[in-house]
Amino acid sequence: MSEQRKAAPPDPHDFLAVDDSLSDEERDIRDTVRDFAARELRPHVADWFEAGTIPDPRSLAKAFGDLGVFGMHLEGYGCAGASAVEYGLACRELEAVDSGLRSFVSVQGSLAMTAIHKFGSEEQKNHWLPRMAAGEAIGCFGLTEPDSGSDPGSMRTRARRDGSDWVLDGTKMWITNGSIADVAIVWAATDEGIRGFAVPTDTPGFSANLVHKKLSLRASITSELVLDGVRLPGDALLPGSTGLGAPLSCLNEARYGIVWGAAGAARACYEAALEYATTREQFGRPIGGFQLTQRKLADMLVDVNQAGLTAMQIGRLKDQGRCHRNHVSFGKFACVAAAQRVASTARSIHGANGITLEYPVLRHMLNLETVATYEGTEEIHALSLGQAVTGISAFR
Question: Which coenzyme or cofactor does it need (predicted)?
Answer without folding.
Answer: FAD
